[in-house]
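It is time I had a proper look at our fold encoding. Can you supply me with one protein entry, sequence and fold together? It will help me judge whether the discrete encoding reads sensibly. Leave the record below and I will have a look:
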Amino acid sequence: MFHYVGILFSFIALVSWGFGDFFIQKTTRVIGSWKALFFIGMAGLIGLFPFVKNDLTSLNSANLLLLGLLGVVVVFAALFDFEALRQGKIAIVEPIIGLELPMTVGLSLALANESLSFLQLFLVGIVFIGIVLAITAHHTRLHYHKRIFERGAILAGIGAIGMALTNFLVGVSSQGISPLITIWFAHSLLAVVCGIYILFKGEFGSLISDFKNYPKPIIGQSVLDNVAWVSFAKATTYIPIAIATTISESYIALAVLLGLFVNRERLRVHQIVGVALATIGVITLSYFS
């Protein structure tokens, strides 16, 4: 019964990231990646603190070491991820970032001693193929070896590795410590590092004016990203990290559908097939998990 709770949290993460990506892309393009990440970090630091303040004293040195490692990985992964989205074409960047799914599954199976049935592994593969098809505008862009020098592609590749490590470490930390403390610690460190950089650049004073000028995308990305990460972290305490990642990662296919209805984008046949595969794969995986 409890695994259904994990699946529910995974779907909440899916929806939150699906809508949040729109706000993240808008925010990074008007105020930059560092400031966008600072606002996300501050939202987590302030918003989650009331829920974790009484538990912080129970952390030991091993917990702090794990959370510190997670925080460092989160900062670098998010920066590469956001910069790739800001600099590159989303049709080029997103399929590469989507590689975080098989990487996370591999880490979970190899290092977290998780085990999936053949059917579950097959469905994970179906979801991944569906995601790649859904977010690739032209089938020729599926030739990854030809895209390595595309603008933002290398950043996206590094970001995918970083996000896979982030997913894995969030899951391990949530299972061993607490989902809320895990996300609070990671986003607090994110806020501190980005804040120091912005201060060093002499742009800290412009944060207030940025917020006044672009409140909707900043609030949207900050709230939804924190909701997504907390939901994903909670999910990993009920179901395997690999399953939680596969379900929540399908937010990319949701983003494609949002582009269809919100931006009036036209989908090609292979993209429609991709959305269908991802949807069927996620629903079936949820049933057999």
The chain has one domain: 2-287. The chain has 13 helices and no strands.
